Amino acid sequence: MTDYSEYETKCRNAHDKNFLSNTPAEFQDLYFAVRRFTMLSRERLYDVFLSCEYLADAEIAGDLVEIGCWGGGTLALALSATKDHKVSRLVWGYDTFEGHPEPSADELDVWGNSQLSKFQDMKLKGESWASKSLDEVSSCIEQ
Predict the structure, then answer these.
(1) Which residue in 23, 66, 74, 96 has the most C-beta neighbors within 10 A?
(2) What is the dihedral of CA 120, 122, 123, 124, to 10 degrees?
(3) pLDDT by residue (tens digit) across 28-52?
(4) What are φ and ψ of residue 104, in 5° steps?
């Protein structure tokens, strides 16, 4: 495990504490509405939000696509971030709606834990990993 200096720890804690308060209220509202339905961090969601704003402000035409939409939270954020702009666009979400495929033996999470072991444990319990139905995703988007 990496030892962090006191300075690095303070920086990380300050970021964790202050990130959202330094974003627009519109993003904060969207973030709290969708965070349960996405696997993206708040920083990545803010990147999606800013990208949608940029595309709208620059009047760049075209649709948006998300591959692997899980619970639909990122789709809902993108739809909300683009709906009140001059450029009309569709937001598409593609998913198998069958959950995460079985990982290979060498796949680890960010903490070094085997993803295959986690997958197999869930399978033994009759659970699926990261599986959401089309109806669940549609429900998230409609909120």
Answers:
(1) 74
(2) 90
(3) 999 999 999 999 999 999 999 999 9
(4) -80, 165
Residues across the chain: 143
Q: Is the pTM of this model over 0.85?
A: no
pLDDT > 70? residue 1: no
* DSSP secondary structure letter of residue 35: G
Q: Which of 101, 109, 97 is nearest to 70 (CA)?
A: 97
134-142 and 73-82 helices cross at what angle (nearest 10)? 30
Q: At 65, phi and psi to the nearest 5?
A: -130, 135
Burial class (CB in 10 A: 0-12, 13-18, 19+), 9: exposed
Residues 141 and 72 sit within 8 Å (Cβ to Cβ): yes
CA distance 87 to 84: 9
- What are the tens digits of pLDDT across the range 81-128? 988 777 788 999 999 998 888 999 999 988 899 999 999 999 999 988
